Amino acid sequence: MCIGYGVSCLTAPAVAEYPVAGTAPDQRLAGAPTTTSVVKPEGWYQNALTGLQPPYSHSFRFLEDQGNWYTPFTEPGMIGRYDIRGWHQNSK
Questions:
Q1: Model confidence over 35-77: pLDDT tens digits?
Q2: How confident is the model at residue 2 (pLDDT cuts 50, 70, 90)?
Q3: For a FRET experiment, which of 3, 39, 43, 52 has its CA 20 to 30 Å from that of 81?
Q4: Looking at the 3D structure of the chain, how many domains does it have?
């Protein structure tokens, strides 16, 4: 395919035949990877509860269902006065 712009011509790259995600959001793509197990290494809960004091609120039970996806709750955030859980105290 050639798209003309004055005297020059741009050639569009060939388009690969890959499935387009999102065209049927209620269906999983055939051959898409699936999670078969969730492994939380030793110390995972202790790390996830950094800066929180027992007794823990019932609302933290969501950690029991936390799978292999990213959650900002288990990762250090901003520093300084915004570090309300103390993630960065020892990194000085």
A1: 888 999 999 999 999 999 999 999 999 999 998 888 899 999 9
A2: low
A3: 43
A4: 1
Query: What is d(CA 46, CA 65) in angstroms, rounded to the nearest whole number?
Result: 15
Evaluate whether residue 9 is within a structural domain.
no
DSSP letter at 89 equals: G
The type of residue at 75 is: E
43 is in which domain, residue-wise?
39-92
Q: Are 2 and 11 in contact (CB under 8 A)?
A: yes
| CA–CA dist 9, 87 (Å, integer) | 55
Tokens 């030793």 -> residue: 42
Rg (CA), the chain: 24
- Residue type present at position 74: T
**Cα–Cα distance, 13 to 16 (Å, whole number):** 9
- The answer as to whether 66 is a domain residue is yes
